Predict the 3D structure of the following.
Amino acid sequence: MKKLIAGNWKMNGTEQSSDALIVAVEEAIQKNPAVLEQCDFVVCPPFLYLPMVKDKTSVVAVGGQDCSDRENGAFTGDISGAMLKDIGATYVILGHSERRQYHAESDVLVAAKAQMANAAGLITIICVGETEAEREAGAQNDVVGSQLKASLPQGVNAQNTVIAYEPVWAIGTGKTATAEDIRAMHAFIREKLVQTLADGANIRILYGGSVKPANAAEIFGVPNVDGALIGGASLKADDYMGIANAVKG
């Protein structure tokens, strides 16, 4: 299974900087095409730059950072999964901790969004993860297990769904879970997927939480880590590609 290198650009960039970033990534891959034997690539820019980014690359898939749980209608400001698909998106990130925290998104809402996104033909990257307080209380498995159970819609399989484990306390903080922390949680997630889904053994599980070129090789060496969901480091082509180049054949 190839590693999935997913870049979440979040609410960053301009038309000019987004253009420069995807061109630099594309050129880096073209100069080292062997990386495509080990990795699949996707970047998730702000919605309005998505068509431009897609047009600038032949090897990097593009995705949305969120979508609506509705197909269409009077929902001002919302973007449907079908709209993302229509402008060339392949993926969409759902249930990111920032959406759960700042927009009070529940597991039920994440599942409804994922249902609509899958129906539109998108691959969902469904995020789960505990806060620092929850980990300190030893509740990380309960929290992540509950999120997995309630955030995954009917019809989930290895073709339409990716899971991203993102310990909330390690996002944008510079903190990184230890290799043992990651091993234990990814093994737990895999166990839950295998218990509930026919092809749970084949669903990619990404790690997200201050992934950098300096720690990527160690993270990718952990069993059941099938790629990375990268935030800040995906805004610099050298860092994004440095993480991809850390994947060993």
Observations:
- The mean pLDDT is 96.
- The CA atoms of residues 164 and 206 lie 4 Å apart.
- The first strand starts at residue 3 and ends at 8.
